[in-house]
Queue: 2 jobs
Job 1
Amino acid sequence: MTALSGSGPAVCIGADIDTDLVIAGRYLRTKDRSVWAQHVFEDLDPGLAPRLKGAVLIAGKNMGCGSSREQAAVALREAGVLAVIAPSFARIFYRNSINVGLPVIECEIPGCHDDMNITFDCVDGWIAVDGKKYFFRPLSSRMQEILNTGGLVEYWKRRLER
Amino acid sequence: MVTLSEKILGAKAGTYVDRQVDRAFCHDGTGIQAKLVFDRIGSPKLADPASIYVIYDHISPANNSQTAELQAELRDFSHKNGVNFMDIGSGICHQVMAEGLVHPGEVVIGADSHSCTLGALGAFATGVGASDMAGIWISGETWLRIPDSIGIHLSDVLPAGVEWKDLALSYVSLLGMDGATYAALEFVGEAAQSVPMEGRLTLCNMAVEAGAKTGLFYADQETARYLALYHAPVDTQVPENPSYVRECFISLLDLEPVCAVPHRVDTVEPVTKLAGTPVDQIFIGTCTNGRFEDLKRAAEILKGHRVSVRTIVVPASEGDYLKAIRTGVAADLIQAGCVMGPPGCGPCLGAHMGVLGEGEVGLSTANRNFKNRMGVGASYYLCSPSTAAASALSGEIADPREVI
Ligand code: SF4
């Protein structure tokens, strides 16, 4: 199950963060999903990983550009990120995130700083930042369904049972 | 009024469709992840094994026993399920698929971001991640949003010493790393038809570096000539007055040799400005520029000389490798002091076979120069095969127009 709404402290990262920076190529060849969470953002800022549990990641434009590695989205989810918010996403990262059960929200949050507290609701399409509200287009019903079931694995399990 | 993407996918830009996938491919890296997702779903039946391709290129041959075990697992799975399996040495997945397997008008999905390369053949080709690939294995289809299209109009001819790679780097710099996010690029205009297939593959390959979903050329006489080599039939396509959300007009005559400088692919400088920058390693290869024609242009510059810096050459496919051997291109490169690796991605992803050390500077014909990608603490420049070869002679970034 993925929570389509939630609340947590902001962790701010920059624009054009590529998937090599989320999880480096040298850690990809394993079945152990916890390895990716351990090394998430290692080449960007090794101090980030311990702060991700229960946090809302706020990125700049073009979040997740570059390689198609799904491990990037898995790493963030396994590290405990509740949702990723960015003004724009690279499309494969966007798709991968939904598929692994990590909510992604296209919305610009000006002046991101780490003390902010973020509340989000993907069903109604709003984010509250220290009391101020921002609105975004709610996720499509199919994306909500995939997220709701916990990702594509659960989604397909259910579809095949029907 | 219809773009090529709209025509192939059968719906208007902005709408969502479920489309049957004609060819679905993955490599050793994404394939094993797709297999693990597939297992977690409960290993149902594959919808259409004949349309599935598994091609080993990323860490090929395996660099350690962990990689070898993962590769063994996927190899075994591929054989048991009767999918098309191509083992180490076949070449980079995109190039292998381009050698007669993909046809104009098809929907092609690869578990790799550079799957857009195959738009060069007039197919709708784009990349997805591992779970999406597992979903395609199970259902034979996937959901797609029909992209808007950006028209890249080409005119005139390339000056000597300037390559399609210089155009690729130039258009990425023009659009920016996210300038085409979610859109498809269509290469059109009077000069588009004169772009040879190797150049089309290079140009479409880099579409994703501007955030695009794919890059496309309309299938024409050149597509027919190229696919005839593989005895593949071609229905040509013509632009039907497509409506573009943005248009760029590029005269090839205005182009010059360029490099993308560390660590952004959209930050491009003319080679004349960078000339004299010392480099520690040169790499000629990848799905962008590891084709026979790329190797040949490098060999023409290097023949009879000796490189003064370590230079790695990796052919994109077995076919490219064989051609390089039969024509003497491989011998010229080796005699000039280049090291040749087996067909595949080689050092492109920084996993083996030429990883850079801390503080080292690399010059590569690849498509991506993200920080740390080819070695932690290293930096590198991207360029054309001719620029790479000219630079190999002196060990510094050099203008190929001075040596051809
Ligand atoms: S050559 Fe490089 S960019 Fe191309 S598929 Fe291989 S790793 Fe990716």
Job 2
Amino acid sequence: MDQVVLTNIIYVTIFLIGALLFGFGPIIIVKLLSPSSHTRQTAGRAGQLIECGMEPIGSAWIRFGIIYYLYALIFLAFDVDVLFLFPVAVAYNSPELGLQDFYEILLFVAILSLAIVYAWRKGVFTWEKKTYLHQ
Amino acid sequence: MGEENVPSSIVQFAQLDSLLNLGRANSLWPMTFGLACCAIEMMCTGGSRYDISRFGAEVFRPSPRQSDVMIVAGTINKKLELAVKTLYDQMPEPKWVIAMGNCAISGGPFKVKENYNVVEGADKLFPVDVYIPGCPPRPEALLEGIMTLEEKITGKRRWPRVDPG
């Protein structure tokens, strides 16, 4: 084999071994040096998921009203509006901007407004708790 | 408490253990956990005036799974007994307990004949390493308790003992 290729392979191997040691070394060292076999128990609850001492009530897999989430989505529509209108506002006083640019901005805002109109038509803005099955 | 089954590590070297214990003693992480008025003194100890971080114990952890020391600061009611025991269970080894104040030592002012709802001492629930008397103890007393725990872990005292006279 070529001498250069051999040297390269040796380099890669050394680095690979170093990386593996760097990754697995700490885990092995901790396993060997820490008293991690068990932990002293008084109520046998080390495995309890909640870490505040209280017994969890019910499951974590619950259903909750989606109504606030829709508000968050509507915020996105306004957010994008504002985000893209900032550069427009900065450049708007420039003399190169004509009536055509104004119409373009108007079209842009109109398209974005469609999202709000859609949500409005769907009745997102009326705050009422949706009822679901199995509840 | 009966016989204790304290877990130990797989590999044990005396020199290495003393080094590890030095590290543990100088960075005791207490649990953010207060039961009654002693907790106010504990917060004060964490503040800038008494500054518990001078002793490496300022990292109050919000989870028992990250903490080394449980400072039982206050009265343990019967209703809280299970919660406190659960928190103790969830702490990983090595773990230590400081009973701060008279309530955590023996029930304190609640250790009367009529008492029906207070656990008379944290050592009724789990082994306690350091007792700090006082009602409540002053922040200096808590600092002394931390130093005593350091002494217990490493076997030697890091700071000079102050003559009270």
